[in-house]
TrEMBL record:
Annotated keywords: Glycoprotein, Glycosidase, Hydrolase, Lysosome, Signal
Catalytic activity: Hydrolysis of terminal, non-reducing beta-D-mannose residues in beta-D-mannosides
Pfam families per UniProt: Glyco_hydro_2_N2
Database matches in InterPro entries: Beta-gal/glucu_dom_sf, Beta-mannosidase-like_N2, Beta-mannosidase_GH2, Galactose-bd-like_sf, Ig-like_fold
Name of the protein in its database record: beta-mannosidase
GO biological processes: glycoprotein catabolic process
PANTHER family to which the protein is assigned, alphabetical: BETA-MANNOSIDASE
Keyword Glycoprotein: yes
Domain Beta-mannosidase-like galactose-binding, first and last residues per copy: 29-203
Length: 320
């Protein structure tokens, strides 16, 4: 039996390396209401409520009964838009992706007036292939749907069985059918907080361009094995190989504080590929586990993972 005492999740984008170029789309955007009667600047990461408050169009949402007075915000369908220029020659890159680390929540995504995808999960990372759509100068839109109305529509369409609760207790003054949307559940109201189911882009958004291959992410999971009484590490890496030929190379995993270093040979076929590695931690080294605050130390160990691939390509990432 393997006891998972600690799970560390590390998401690693490719970043600005020799393998590609990255353009952040954080910062200033435009936000407009569903009928276009209200348009204002907004910041990304951010949300509609924060943009309205920063422009002085609403008072502090948490003051007195403003949670009830401002319900019109969450019942409207807002649109986020941005015009941007690519600062590098886009034609030199085989693959161009539009990356959203966090969108809140239900939206249609259009680049240069072309629908490229949808979002429907606040907690999910979205990657859209825009290679055939992106230009030197671009216009990006996210057309959001009211989360309250969306949840109600989803509930109405679901007739197979009941999904309680339909609505929170009246004293909470919350919104209904929160179980039908993949959104922060407390945003529809709770016993300890008001209902503010907002809309917006709450994490990073960027353009990524690359050739040959790209490391989408890697995740690492320390595991304790009762049979061997030792620690191991599972590493999963996701690659997008745009080369028409397989790519070979080596992976070097190093955890200096645990006196652990191992090398693996890999071959990546064209397309979306997963590489799984199993690292045995040196059994002669004492492993300090992670304790909750007040019960012990929060010990972390630095790990470096280096991918050395054909053509002199090198990708290095680090994590705890």
């Amino acid at each position: 039996m393997r006891l998972r005492l600690l799970f560390l999740l590390t998401l690693c984008g490719a970043g600005p390396t020799a393998l590609g170029r990255t353009l952040s789309l954080r910062g200033s955007w435009r936000i407009r209401s569903g009928n276009g009667s209200l348009e204002l600047p907004g910041r990304v990461p951010g949300c509609v409520h924060s943009a309205l408050f920063q422009r002085g169009l609403i008072q502090d949402p948490y003051y007195r009964f403003n949670d009830l007075d401002y319900r019109w915000i969450s019942l409207d369908n807002w649109t986020y838009s941005k015009k941007f220029k690519i600062p590098f020659n886009i034609s030199k890159w085989q693959k161009v992706n539009l990356i959203f680390e966090g969108v809140d929540t239900v939206a249609k995504v259009l680049l240069n007036s072309v629908p490229i995808g949808k979002t429907g999960n606040m907690f999910k990372r979205y990657s859209f292939d825009v290679t055939s759509v992106v230009r030197d100068v671009n216009s990006l839109e996210l057309r959001f749907q009211s989360p309250v109305l969306y949840a109600a529509q989803q509930s109405k369409a679901h007739t197979n069985y009941s999904v309680p609760p339909d609505c929170p207790p009246p004293v909470q003054k919350g919104q209904c059918h929160v179980n039908f949307i993949r959104k922060e559940q407390s945003s529809f109201g709770w016993d300890w907080g008001p209902s503010f189911p907002t809309q917006g882009i709450w994490k990073d958004v960027r353009i990524e361009a690359y050739n040959i291959c790209h490391l989408n992410y890697f995740v690492s999971s320390p595991i304790y094995d009762n049979h061997t009484q030792g620690w191991n590490l599972e590493i999963e890496s996701s690659f997008d190989v745009v080369s028409s030929k397989p790519i070979s190379g080596q992976v070097m995993v190093a955890i200096p504080e645990l006196q652990t270093q191992q090398t693996y040979s890999i071959e990546l076929q064209p397309g979306e590929r997963i590489v799984e590695l199993f690292v045995k931690i040196n059994k002669n080294v004492t492993i300090e586990t992670w304790w909750p605050h007040g019960h012990g130390n929060q010990t972390g160990y630095n790990m470096t993972i280096l991918f050395k691939l054909d053509g002199g390509l090198s990708i290095e990432k680090s994590a705890k």
